[in-house]
Amino acid sequence: MGTRDGGAGFIGSFLTEELVKRGADVRIADNLTRxxxxxxxxxxxxxxFLTSDLTTHKGCIEATEDIDHVFHLAASVGGIHYIxxxxxxxLTPSVLMNQNMLEAARINDxxxxxxxxxxxxxxxxxxxLNLFSEDQAIPADPHSTYGWAKxxxxxxxxxxxxxxxxxxxxxxxxxxxxxxxxxxPKSSHVIPSLCRKVIEEPDGGAIELFGDGTQERGxxxxxxxxxxxxxxxxxxxxxxxxxxxxxxxxxxxxxxATRIINISGKNLSIEHDLSKPTGTDKYACDMxxxxxxxxxxxxxxxxxxxxxxxxxxxxxxKGKKQVITTDGGN
Length: 330
Description:
Layout (H helix, E strand, L loop, with lengths): L9 H12 L4 E4 L17 E4 L6 H8 L4 E4 L7 H5 L7 H16 L4 E7 L12 E2 L12 H19 L3 E7 L2 E2 L12 H11 L5 E5 L5 E3 L1 E2 H14 L5 E4 L5 E3 H12 L4 E5 L8 E4 L2 H7 L7 H28 L1
């Protein structure tokens, strides 16, 4: 079995590691615009790596040659500032990659194809807490071009499932978190962003939240997500989308910040910037279809995952400070 994905990225690196553990022959295709070879350097003797432009037909043909299973995670993506904008950069590259990868998989007789979709396809319903089920994606009305790219990818997967020999899956990912995610303030997601703020803020200071802190999310730990994706490509290749997330514990952004502060042991206050984008107010994953059809649910407790991310971020930022100090002294 082989695989193709943004394998040097955050989710892809954990998925690659799990596939290698299971004895798969893994090929990664990544142009490294967001991916980082350091995430997979411990696997370099066990995998094949291609630096590919998956917006091109040629790049996708090369990536899928002699491959059995494709995990397609590559997308044009960024942090909250990015997905709020209506921008062609969030649409065109992703649509090209999705279509070229599916067509290349068909041409190269790939057996199974998993597409990484997103909870961003759902439009807020304004319930007390939006537990989105798969049928709520229709009629489609995402907030962003990123969401529309995912809708189009799902439609394409379903078409290839019906009209070709390719078996496809689409997984709608809800708020994945874990170590090795971007800590760049310009593009990071909420958990690494808050960890960085807490780590860098002196004891007695304050950190800033976007919005009033009442926004709620359910988060899935990255190793659980990797397991869910593998189970999906093994058990559910019928072209229909399925949620992958964890709503067993849902937290507000203020509660999340408070938990991270508690982990740090610092005495920090929380301030709010109501002018900044906040994303959808409330959403989490309806797990019904996932638990029934995959016979599985995530296992990592949220607090345990949060502690792991904080410890990793602290070591990562401490290491960068040491490099800066050393360079400055030369």
